[in-house]
Amino acid sequence: MELEKRKEVDEQKWVYDSSIDHKANIPLRSSTGVWKAAKFIIAIEFSERLTNYGIATSLIIYITKVIQQDLKVAARNVNYWSGVTTLMPLIGGFVADAHLGRFYTVFVSTIVYLLGLILLTLSWFLPSLKPCNEAVCHEPRKVHEVVFYIAIYLISIATGGHKPALESFGADQFDDDHSEERRKKMSYFNWWGCGLCSGVLLGVTLIVYVQDHVSWGAADIVLTAVMTMSLVILILGRPFYRYRVPTGSPLAPLLQVLVAAIRKRNLQCPSNSAELYEVPKSQMKRGRLLCHTNKLVFLDKAAIVESTEENSAEKKNPWRLQTVTKVEELKLILNMIPIWIATLPFGICVAQTTTFFIKQGTTLDRHIGNGFQIPSAWIYGLSPIGMFISLAIYEKILVPVLRKMTGNERGVNILQRIGIGMVFSLTSMVVAAMVERKRLDLVDRNPLKGSLTMSVFWLVPQFLIIGLGDGFTLVGLQEYFYDQVPDSMRSLGIAFYLSVVGAASFISSLLITLVDHLTGKAGRSWFGKDLNSSRLDKFYWLLAGITAANMLLYVLLAKRYSYKKVQRNMAAADCNQGDPVASMA
């Protein structure tokens, strides 16, 4: 009894979750991690999102006005850039988990980010790189276009390391085995969303205002200064962080499980899962043991101990024998694939906000007050405002009420939260289709003035609704992919979340190309040279139909999904009863 009490006091003082402090010692709970460290990381996220959205929001306007590309070509190029930006984290997340570690991945990525921003600034101010020397540019220089694309793709590569490593580094500051810190981590993802929204809001208002009323180059200087400050903040927080040591490739053990299972394909799985091979918890150097599940039972064969493997030498061959925990980690990844696919239509809807939604704003009356004309990209600011509202309602009202009703620490499970956001994205596409139809009717009635008699505030509902959905689905996806991946893959987990939006951007581009080709063959393409000669309303209805059909599939998958179950003690019954971490998901 005395020994257990002493152990409990020791665990309250020190953090035994495989973390180390900046001096490579076991972290002291009172002086590291939790909000002491997370506030630095959320501030860095604010800076990065301000910079990223300051560029991304006006990208289609820059490409059509300065580089002078057609609308459909510009939309395709923006989607390609967005796709690369959100798929690159798959590489960055792997590097962070396997080699550099999360802190140093963020550090290196910030340096690359700054190089891209400096090049972007030079492309506007250096005479040899400027679009042209005349006040009115009829044909921009090719060299400017080349340097511009190099700069934004450098930023894209930097985001690939920065995003997955930073968010997972922030979540690492909370100990999953400490009940108080575990609950704080649930709030962390919501506060992370608030920091993200604040950065986005300033990016699409303040930075876009500078781009419109001062110059693109002046905005680039501001963004460079912001990212420089984020680097300073990252370094200042170093004594307060908890660090995870890279453990090598997290993908190799997954492949070993598959190979071992195939080698033993002719063996019969034991009826009692306790007969499968597992390392005793007392011998675990780092990480947590997972409970056995009855799904994908073929993979369990990798943990069958044959008579020839009874000696320790045979057991050391990971290509023939793997632990139950490693088998369950592969099951986790395989179970995520259908969920990842089912969230793609949501990502396609989100992709429209930075392309067609903003371009719609350029065709409407943007005057308010005494003749002040708001930049068209400002309307995008309603999306993060909607996200703010939904996060505040979820964190302060829904979670406390639903905790009492369901007994679930999260209020609702993660996949339910994601599904709620999908309903909002569907509604947003329906509203966008109706608003665009009204705009086109005005163009038909008065081709001379077009839709300039229609206020830009008609776009408020579609931006606000999709922002409300983001507070549920985007934050839910972040938490889902961080929480449900193996502990050694958490940067990659955030990359999986980002890849939803990235893959969706590519699919959106392919969908535009396909619809353009098919409708063009039928007589009139839905995508003309400008919005007035296009039929975006029909495209939005198509997306609404795809999203509605997909939601039926998603509900089915969510009902059948099994969450990660972590062993809390050495008793086998612990797994059978269900883990607290698993049940709160």
Automatic annotation (TrEMBL):
<feature type="transmembrane region" description="Helical">
    <location>
        <begin position="377"/>
        <end position="394"/>
    </location>
</feature>
<protein>
    <recommendedName>
        <fullName>NPF family transporter</fullName>
    </recommendedName>
</protein>
<feature type="transmembrane region" description="Helical">
    <location>
        <begin position="78"/>
        <end position="96"/>
    </location>
</feature>
<feature type="transmembrane region" description="Helical">
    <location>
        <begin position="414"/>
        <end position="435"/>
    </location>
</feature>
<dbReference type="GO" id="GO:0022857">
    <property type="term" value="F:transmembrane transporter activity"/>
</dbReference>
<feature type="transmembrane region" description="Helical">
    <location>
        <begin position="494"/>
        <end position="519"/>
    </location>
</feature>
<keyword id="KW-0812">Transmembrane</keyword>
<dbReference type="Pfam" id="PF00854">
    <property type="entry name" value="PTR2"/>
</dbReference>
<feature type="transmembrane region" description="Helical">
    <location>
        <begin position="539"/>
        <end position="558"/>
    </location>
</feature>
<feature type="transmembrane region" description="Helical">
    <location>
        <begin position="103"/>
        <end position="126"/>
    </location>
</feature>
<dbReference type="GO" id="GO:0016020">
    <property type="term" value="C:membrane"/>
</dbReference>
<dbReference type="InterPro" id="IPR036259">
    <property type="entry name" value="MFS_trans_sf"/>
</dbReference>
<dbReference type="InterPro" id="IPR000109">
    <property type="entry name" value="POT_fam"/>
</dbReference>
<feature type="transmembrane region" description="Helical">
    <location>
        <begin position="332"/>
        <end position="357"/>
    </location>
</feature>
<comment type="similarity">
    <text>Belongs to the major facilitator superfamily. Proton-dependent oligopeptide transporter (POT/PTR) (TC 2.A.17) family.</text>
</comment>
<feature type="transmembrane region" description="Helical">
    <location>
        <begin position="187"/>
        <end position="210"/>
    </location>
</feature>
<keyword id="KW-1133">Transmembrane helix</keyword>
<keyword id="KW-0472">Membrane</keyword>
<feature type="transmembrane region" description="Helical">
    <location>
        <begin position="216"/>
        <end position="236"/>
    </location>
</feature>
<feature type="transmembrane region" description="Helical">
    <location>
        <begin position="455"/>
        <end position="482"/>
    </location>
</feature>
